[in-house]
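Hello,

Our lab assistant flagged a job as stuck in the queue for most of the afternoon. It eventually completed. Since we weren't sure the result was trustworthy after the delay, we are filing this so someone can double-check. Below is the sequence as submitted and the structure that was eventually returned. Let us know if re-running is recommended.
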Amino acid sequence: MELQQLQIFLTLAQHENMSVTAQLLSTTQPQVSKSLSSLEAELGVKLFDRKGRGIQLNEYGKIFVPYANDAISAIRNGRFTMKNVKNSILGTVTFGTFAFASILNPCVTAYAKENPLVNFRYINNETSNQVSSTNHLDILLCPSLQGHYIYENHFPCFHHLLKEEYYVLISPRLHSYPPEKKSCTLSEIQDFPFIIMGHGGIYQNNDYSILQRIGEITGTSPRIAYEVNEFAIKMLLVSQGSGIAYIPEVCLPMAKAIAPDIRLFTIEDFSTTRSVLIARKPRESMTSAANDFWDFALEYYHLPPDLEE
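-- returned structure --
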């Protein structure tokens, strides 16, 4: 069954006249008759009845009309779509996000509006021992720990995306402070138990680094009461008053969503910041969609062009 056969059939069904159909479709009357006979043979039924010298659409023809219309519409839609996507970006971009998906989301949304056929996959790489299993990632968002970037061998091209502060979270169930209080001193919190991300992950390395610095300044050994491997559990323990926790700025909305009653404080005599990086694999190892997204992201975040690898 060919598109031309369906077009001839539908024109015949509308006008019920071989000569008019041939004229409208810029063909000959014998070609119209031949096309109709071929279609009827394929379907195994007559679609028109003879009426004097003319023809009339019969019940079989009336049943077939909507199917012919649907077929032609589907083909036209397919052609239109293929014309639109011929020069479009296709494929999947895979991100390793740690806790930074919320930073990336506005950029991804803006890119998706311009490239609606690209798919995105977010993977939360939580632990540093996953460095050796990052072949499935195209682009990585990760922290720089005290200026040390541990993924450089796998993601050699990187940019500093932003810097963010750390805050200490304290529940009123553990200690109640006046509403106007926005900061604490180290001496105020040094005896509180701490809740950290554990199991050797990159978050644990961050938490331990902060506690080590607190210990060096105060001359004490901060007590680790809980080590957890899920952020939600960490926040629920803080909310219950089981201890206090340090978290970076990017995690504050999630923390408040889980435990809306917690208070956050800056530390007056202790400043902790970290750099968040966006990095990619060598271009030849990335999908075409990932390469295109990377270039878009550099413009979106006003980052400098890549240096030669």
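-- support follow-up --
The delay was a queue issue, not a problem with the job. The result is valid. The first helix runs from residue 3 to 15. The mean pLDDT is 85.
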